[in-house]
Amino acid sequence: MKSKAFNPLAVNSKEKRLKSVDSAHPLSASRDTREEILQAATRVFAKHGFEGATLQKISKAAKSVDRMIYYYFKSKEGLFIAVLERMYVQMNHAESLIELSSDKPEQALSEVIEFVMRYYREHPEFIALLNTENLHQGRHIVKSLHAAKYSSPAVNVIKSILKRGQQMGLFRSHVRALDIYLLIVSTNYFYVSNRFTLSAFLGRDLQASKEVSRWRKFVTLAVLSSVRVE
Amino acid sequence: MKSKAFNPLAVNSKEKRLKSVDSAHPLSASRDTREEILQAATRVFAKHGFEGATLQKISKAAKSVDRMIYYYFKSKEGLFIAVLERMYVQMNHAESLIELSSDKPEQALSEVIEFVMRYYREHPEFIALLNTENLHQGRHIVKSLHAAKYSSPAVNVIKSILKRGQQMGLFRSHVRALDIYLLIVSTNYFYVSNRFTLSAFLGRDLQASKEVSRWRKFVTLAVLSSVRVE
Amino acid sequence: MKSKAFNPLAVNSKEKRLKSVDSAHPLSASRDTREEILQAATRVFAKHGFEGATLQKISKAAKSVDRMIYYYFKSKEGLFIAVLERMYVQMNHAESLIELSSDKPEQALSEVIEFVMRYYREHPEFIALLNTENLHQGRHIVKSLHAAKYSSPAVNVIKSILKRGQQMGLFRSHVRALDIYLLIVSTNYFYVSNRFTLSAFLGRDLQASKEVSRWRKFVTLAVLSSVRVE
Amino acid sequence: MKSKAFNPLAVNSKEKRLKSVDSAHPLSASRDTREEILQAATRVFAKHGFEGATLQKISKAAKSVDRMIYYYFKSKEGLFIAVLERMYVQMNHAESLIELSSDKPEQALSEVIEFVMRYYREHPEFIALLNTENLHQGRHIVKSLHAAKYSSPAVNVIKSILKRGQQMGLFRSHVRALDIYLLIVSTNYFYVSNRFTLSAFLGRDLQASKEVSRWRKFVTLAVLSSVRVE
DNA sequence: TATGAATGAGCGTTCATTCAT
DNA sequence: CATGAATGAACGCTCATTCAT
What we know:
mainly alpha; 11 helices; homotetramer; Tetracycline Repressor, domain 2; Arc Repressor Mutant, subunit A; DNA-binding; 2 domains
């Protein structure tokens, strides 16, 4: 896996001045406003949920005004859908950049786990938005015309790792890539998503790097135990 | 493991017990009103989140009026905290009722897994409320005076299972009960919590009993693989 | 007909101070606010139509705030319906006070005509509100629970006049009271309702008392011609 | 009475005629756009009144965009004025086409009545627009540069009928054509304008052809009674 | 000529909350 | 103990209109 500093959300801060150069180009002014609203909305929806986020907070964070949101996104819901779409695109893009130690299946799985955990920890807004969408029973994403595109590349990555491991006699046959994917995702997602209530009840800070590292190792153990030949 | 005298609602103080005497009487509306508000609020907060839930919706669902919420719970936040407390009490109560095949550690673990999955599936509002609380960074539950009480009984259940398994030479030493607990919880929590988006992207209904059963078996495999001696 | 200074709308100006005496009585404070909103709404809806009237204009005119309208009337439409109902009640009340020269049918008809014209001229808001309601295809008044009560007393007044005139051999038989009522109403309603466009196109001020008097005489002629035996 | 060269749309200026040449050409969109906006606006203003009509509704109905309205009519008010002008032009044009049984004054009057009722019933938007304009106290039409042109041809038609009737000894002298015109117009206008509230309160459908026919006959009776020598 | 972008002001409505009795 | 009345602030959204090219 190559870290190659991919951070799909680290777009919003310093490039502003560069953008104003771009905005001499036709369409750029509008695109800038649109993109800035989208980024602000991502943050605000992630922080406050759909109903807790107000158009005022978003437009203020985007240094724009409420009405521009309607101009570009028709409604609050339209904006939220656009945010979700953008979020998936970025997630999939990130997944597509995973580079693996191709000849060592166990290490490759470990790298996938590390990628997932790192991505969730670096993009807690991804988690928050997904939770919000599930609170709403997934009713927004089904309105997206592009939902079909969002099938995770990671599942295929895992599938090929498993195949290689099986060829090498390391992994059991009859292990479904989807199960392994869900195992990796659920353990890491939950760890980030529920960090506040978990920390409160367990009385320890699960976000401390030591704890994170422990959890990653345990998840790696669990995953590898699940795939290894007995 | 068995139920001791348990009243999931006798949380707040001593006047409560007096009230519960009254509430046997058909005309004792006050206690009933409070409880009905609490139940309605659980449903509404779970369905709409904290900001999406309105006092109007809640009081209507409770067949009461907004003003009564203030009478019993001081504020919307006070009500939400009471809902959270009640939710934890009920969850812990349920965990305390787990009955295990005490002499077969592997089967016991499997029963814990089954209990957790069943509980989450039967109480999706538990999941929704926890997600809402995490969205708010756990800021409500820390205001609860009773949070300390909520350490999960299940961790101890698992601890004793592991100990027994180690004594029997079935399980590895150096396995932490908390890790196993989190593994069980995260896999099942995620499966229920993200059921809408998962179903949308995977293109299949993960709530179909066949799929649920598959996932339970896989989780059992993963858990047991993680604890077994190699 | 007795003029006896009946003016159902002349309620709002000077009695205010008297009301504040009444408002020591429970319910009065609320009733005052409600009534004042109703009066203000009558004026504003009449002046601007349904959509042209804004809740701000109304609440300001009532020296109250927008939200009180929702407290008492649920919605803008609810307020409009209440205004319509009040308007009909007042109209019917006024009609019920018509006193006629009972033994002179021709004069009685003439008095009805005079009453109608006077009422419309003194209550142009009656006309404006009816026009607004017809613009909306009568969709508000059908929501009124009291619509049935609003059958005009004037039709019965005319019916008895016609009967008397027929008994006296002055009027033709086979004249329907409803037709005469509509003849009287339409001629006077139109004259007031369309006063602005009529005056513009005819190039004369139809509201000048001389013109009004002319029209009343002509209408009287037309009505009497229509009922007299040939 | 017959149609002279008449172009109800050639109202504004001389460029128009040039345009109308263009508009024979299938690609000449501009003229068509203007006309389509005008027709859409007529419908929308008639249905919703001035404030209830929005530029959005109009431009959508005209399959154009808001901006085009400003291009052709400067403002919402400008558009409304244009609609009113067009409406009057069409009404006058229709009146100018009335053909009468010139030698039978009574029948001629009856034909005028029939024309008026038919026109109102076939053009309820004429009524709605006039009511809207009167709600606004005629303030738009006075801004029209062409208002002067709109004196109704029908008055003159009636004037000549009355003269003929008097010559024939059928009609009284001292009957003003304007009064008869207003009698005809008011009775029919009111009948259409207030059809919704009337039907609601009288509990019968005044637009049923039987009821319409009855009213036309009664109006005819009233008009003829008013002009006949005793 | 024609159009995408932008805008200030205001819309009807609802929010959680408190007053006053 | 309970409730009608009231409230300031904000909500998502739409209005007619203008800018800039």
